[in-house]
Design a protein that fits this description.
heterodimer; A: little secondary structure; 7% strand; flat; B: 328 residues; alpha+beta; four-stranded parallel beta sheet; 10 helices; 29% strand
Chain lengths: 120, 328
């Protein structure tokens, strides 16, 4: 069982990685980054939506006058497409990743911090 | 004791105006509405939850300052961009709630997050669409710059480069890149799998919002490749029609993907052909409704209520069950 032995050695010695560890490249300003072919979009124009707060009783957001924000739909299109940071909402896909990043730790039972993966 | 009313559970971030649109429409229906953000479960006093897993059917109760919802009253769940969980407490609490929700029988989800996850845009979705007869631009996914450059050469020397997963805190639109740029960026391409696709010589785009069997096609005219990167005031939105054959294909696609709702993106070329780009299970509809007047939130609401309750019967003493179940 060379395979298991290799894993155990990896766990104990923590030095027998088959793949090079990622290096901290942040110190080097000239280093290449992924997706350099792409560019960040400028932020959208400032939204015209007045300040609003979430009304827990009515379960909608209301302006200071107490009116529901969405009762004035047309002027507020920007906020319906962008999140509070001004980025398009289609992209904030709030679902868990199928592949746990812990799966590829030094062993199949422990993650890189030495914790049991069942608990991850 | 007050009989149970059918309840629609809205799971969304508090500041989400798309959810607001749906809640406002739901107010006109004979249902109870309970809007929650799962993170409130870990904010003392805001949202209380107690659930049971024992010899009785799985059940739980959610309550806040203004309302209480029993799991047995829930007929549909509108799962719409809830806040991401932060920290162990929120993650654990959200997991428990989600698990109870996933255990509900005969509940209509718009959309079930697990189905949405597997249906999200990507090579599989594109292939499914192609197999159903949609026109789909060929695509390649690679971290090999030579493969990418060859693909671009085969398709006129320029291709679209885009990502399937959004950057966590900024918007990165699709961009046209040339063979030369690909070769110059070889080192960068080796750092991650990149998505390249043949360019559609488009005259405009279509955002097709689908809920149930209702379709809301919106023509979007904007300069540039990715209309999402164009300021709204420089775009034109117009409600348009959709051909019956294409509508049938859309229905089949939704069925294959297991989705009740999606926002489909098409590019339309000079011949009028609709090229399928992707289907977003949680794509936004508010801007389409605001700019065209199409009543999408009303259609979502109808689906969450009428479609969800169509198979149910209500007992004289309150409560409901799916009519397909034996009476007892």
């Amino acid at each position: 069982m060379i395979w298991r032995s290799s894993l155990r050695n990896t766990r104990v010695e923590n030095s027998d990685h088959r793949y090079p560890r990622p290096t901290n490249t942040r110190k080097d300003a000239t280093v290449t980054t992924a997706f350099a072919l792409l560019a960040e979009s400028p932020k959208p124009p400032t939204s015209t939506v007045p300040d609003f707060t979430y009304d827990r009783q009515r379960q909608v957001n209301v302006t200071r006058s107490g009116k529901a924000v969405t009762d004035h739909a047309a002027p507020y299109a920007l906020t319906m497409t962008h999140n509070s940071q001004g980025f398009k909402k289609d992209d904030d896909f709030q679902t868990p990743s199928i592949v746990s990043p812990m799966l590829f730790g030094p062993t199949m039972t422990h993650n890189s911090s030495g914790l049991k993966q069942d608990d991850a | 004791m007050r009989p149970f009313h059918p309840s629609v559970l809205v799971v969304a971030a508090p500041d989400d105006l798309g959810a607001d649109l749906v809640v406002r429409e739901l107010e006109g229906h004979q249902v109870d509405i309970h809007r929650v953000t799962p993170n409130d479960l870990a904010r003392p006093g805001l949202l209380k939850m107690t659930g049971h897993s024992d010899e009785e059917p799985l059940r739980f109760r959610l309550s806040d300052e203004h309302r209480t919802t029993l799991s047995s009253s829930i007929v549909s769940v509108f799962w719409w961009h809830p806040e991401p969980a932060e920290g162990w407490e929120q993650t654990e609490s959200r997991f428990v709630l989600e698990n109870f929700l996933h255990g509900l029988d005969n509940v209509l989800w718009v959309n079930h997050p697990h189905r949405a996850l597997t249906a999200r845009p990507g090579p599989v979705q594109l292939k499914v669409a192609h197999d159903l007869g949609f026109h789909t631009p060929p695509a390649i996914y690679t971290n090999d710059p030579d493969e990418a450059a060859e693909f671009a050469s085969e398709h006129g020397g320029q291709v679209v480069c885009k990502t399937l997963v959004g950057h966590p805190d900024r918007f990165i639109p699709a961009r046209i890149v040339s063979v030369e740029e690909i070769r110059a960026g070889a080192e960068s391409i080796r750092l991650a799998v990149h998505y390249f696709q043949r360019i559609v010589d488009k005259v405009h785009d279509i955002r097709l919002t689908v809920i149930g069997e209702r379709l809301f096609p919106c023509k979007i005219t904007a300069e540039g490749l990715d209309w999402r990167a164009v300021p709204e005031q420089e775009q034109r939105y117009e409600a348009v029609g959709i051909s019956q054959p294409l509508a049938v294909k859309v229905g089949k696609l939704m069925s294959r993907l297991g989705l009740e709702y999606a926002a489909l993106d098409f590019s339309v070329d000079r011949s009028g052909t609709w090229w399928f780009l992707e289907a977003n299970p949680f794509g936004q509809f508010g801007f389409v409704q605001a700019t065209t007047g199409m009543a999408i939130s009303r259609a979502i609401t109808d689906h969450l209520t009428q479609a969800a309750m169509a198979t149910r019967v209500f007992t004289p003493d309150g409560g409901h069950r799916a009519s397909s179940r034996p009476r007892c």
